[in-house]
Amino acid sequence: MALTLKSKRLRVAMNVGEDAKGKKRIRSRSFANINFDANESQLHSACTAVASLLTGSPDEFSLVTENVLTAG
Questions:
Q1: Can you give the pLDDT at residue 1?
Q2: How far apart are CA 19 and CA 4, in angstroms?
Q3: Per-residue pLDDT averaged across 8-34, rounded?
Q4: What percent of the chain is helix, strand and coil (3-state, nearest 5)?
Q5: Between the chain's N and C termini, which has fewer beta carbons within 10 Å?
Q6: What is the DSSP letter of 23?
């Protein structure tokens, strides 16, 4: 079995306020075509830069990876 990295996405979750019950309202955006060789510092810098262009305050940055398991 071989595990191969297929794709990476950055997910930026923004806190856009509270609803009538006081629960946080979170909006998220995902960005594909992330450089596979980017390190954690570079990814965090990219998320911070993107978050500065979005409405709300940053709540969470995530790196979502998709791997493919193949026989062989």
A1: 85
A2: 41
A3: 95
A4: 20, 55, 25
A5: C
A6: P
